[in-house]
């Protein structure tokens, strides 16, 4: 038997088995389940005013449990952990995460699973409480007024352009012309602005004889301070 064989054998014998009792496994999975359900209700509460995906929320709980099971398995055997890393490396997730907060909750669930699987449930509990406080505190911080999109369809002449700019400047201190399209003598103008009296602005613009239509739209883009 060569030195390389002796080294490999001694290495595998020293690290291949780490005893994990049934009680410890159940406790770790129970902590992961409880914290996963906690994340479930926090996510449901945070998305009560937006589009809510129950399937994604359920997947957060399952992700926490599965991650805990993986960490427990990795702790039980170095050989199994190496094989599991190789198996997980071929997994590809192609579902795009559209909301940044969904990504936060996803990492939160995975982190709870890892920490509970490592037997540090106290850290997972403290992490969940701190993240909850941070989410609710930051979500209630008042922000600046979100910009709006003004869409105007009118005749393309100097008098109309001048009148539109005067009216927009009257109600909005700062505005940006995002698009100007001229087709067959018709002007389609898109302006980004922050305005408080949107009803008065649209009424005054629509009162112009050469203006065909006026639309004021809100969007969830970046906030202008």
Task: Label this structure with key terms.
elongated; 225 residues; single chain; 4 strands; 15% strand
Brief overview:
The chain is of the alpha+beta class and 225 residues long. 59% of the residues lie in helices and 15% in strands.
What is the fold's blueprint, element by element?
Elements: H1 3-15, H2 22-46, H3 54-76, H4 78-88, H5 100-117, H6 121-139, E1 148-155, H7 158-171, E2 175-183, E3 186-193, H8 198-206, E4 211-218
Antiparallel strand pairs: 1-3, 1-4, 2-3
CA-atom Rg in angstroms: 29 Å
Binned strand content: 5-15%
Structure classification = alpha+beta
Strands, count: 4
* Largest sheet data: 4 strands, antiparallel
pLDDT averaged over residues: 79
Distance between the terminal alpha carbons, to the nearest Å?
74 Å
Residue share in helices? 55-70%
Instruction: Name the strands of the widest sheet in spatial order.
Output: 2-3-1-4
SS field, number of helical segments: 8
Order of helices and strands: HHHHHHEHEEHE
Assembly state of the chains shown: single chain
């Amino acid at each position: 038997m060569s030195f390389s064989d002796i080294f490999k054998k001694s290495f595998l014998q020293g690290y291949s088995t780490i005893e994990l009792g049934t009680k410890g496994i159940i406790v770790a999975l129970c902590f992961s389940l409880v914290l996963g359900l906690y994340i479930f209700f926090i996510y449901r509460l945070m998305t009560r005013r937006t589009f809510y995906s129950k399937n994604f929320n359920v997947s957060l709980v399952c992700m926490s449990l599965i991650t805990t099971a993986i960490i427990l398995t990795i702790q039980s055997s170095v050989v199994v952990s190496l094989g599991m890393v190789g198996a997980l490396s071929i997994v590809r997730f192609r579902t795009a995460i559209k909301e940044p907060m969904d990504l936060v909750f996803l990492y939160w669930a995975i982190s709870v699973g890892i920490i509970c699987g490592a037997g540090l449930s106290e850290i997972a509990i403290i992490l969940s409480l701190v993240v909850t406080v941070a989410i609710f505190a930051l979500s209630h911080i008042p922000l600046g007024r979100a910009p709006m999109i003004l869409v105007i369809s009118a005749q393309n002449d100097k008098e109309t352009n001048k009148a539109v700019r005067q009216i927009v400047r009257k109600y909005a201190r700062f505005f940006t012309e995002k698009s100007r399209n001229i087709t067959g003598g018709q002007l389609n103008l898109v302006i980004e602005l922050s305005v408080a009296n949107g009803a008065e602005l649209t009424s005054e613009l629509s009162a112009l004889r050469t203006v065909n239509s006026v639309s004021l739209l809100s969007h969830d883009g970046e906030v202008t301070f």
